[in-house]
Amino acid sequence: DTEVTQTPKHLVMGMTNKKSLKCEQHMGHRAMYWYKQKAKKPPELMFVYSYEKLSINESVPSRFSPECPNSSLLNLHLHALQPEDSALYLCASSQDLETEAFFGQGTRLTVV
Amino acid sequence: GQNIDQPTEMTATEGAIVQINCTYQTSGFNGLFWYQQHAGEAPTFLSYNVLDGLEEKGRFSSFLSRSKGYSYLLLKELQMKDSASYLCAVSLLANQAGTALIFGKGTTLSVSS
Questions:
Q1: Could you read off the pLDDT of B28-80 as tens digits, one per residue?
Q2: In this structure, is the dihedral angle defined by the CA atoms of residues B32, B55, A36 and A3, taken in order, positive or negative?
Q3: Which DSSP state fits B27?
Q4: Cβ atoms of A74 and A65 closer than 8 Å
Q5: Of A44, A56, A90, the CB nearest to B98
């Protein structure tokens, strides 16, 4: 299994809603990542988890809250988002410091 | 700070060879990756360089010079399906506990017949 699975694929939410994005991998990877990608822009790093501990938070607003319940799962909890948060949210995982990251297909989020 | 530069756009014709350059100034360098991303899809891994030199993988090759902070991706025998965004990404060691991929802005390659 060489897949990173993200759900849902599409999400439309209002500014007062609370929702969660989910990411799952069964490759035994110990590092997992959240990236945000706006149209025609490169992915921007949001969070890095290593061995289920948050190791990097790239100054992301608190309305985004990551959670790593176990080594296979990564969640991103969303609350009180703004329309400018609409983007493709990509999850990725990697085995160790010197191997490539595998990306999920992303969740396309629209905040209305 | 971290800085990764690559050309914004390139064009080429089918069957040709194209070289996409990437220069970087970063701290904690742990390797350089090239990813391909088609519109609306996730990035897919193409190549990885951590030591100086050339890595070849089929029609794609990638080169790294750590002393110059320079890499290139070489695509041979171009096909229409190679039209995509090519992302140079530097792996940075962070907090002793993991690495993070920092992406350049990407090069949009258009292949015409």
A1: 788 899 999 998 889 999 999 999 999 998 999 999 999 999 999 999 999 99
A2: negative
A3: S
A4: no
A5: A56
Number of Cβ within 10 Å of residue A67's Cβ equals 15
Residue in B closest to A42 by C-alpha: B105
- Contact assignment for B45 to A55 by CB distance below 8 Å: no
- Pairing relation of β-strands B98-103 and B84-94? antiparallel
Q: Which residues in chain B are closer than 8 Å to A55, comparing Cβ atoms?
A: 94-95, 97-98
CB contact under 8 A, B106 and A45: no
Interface test with A, best of B38, B49, B101 (most A CBs within 10 A): B101
Strands A107-111 and A10-13, sheet pairing: parallel
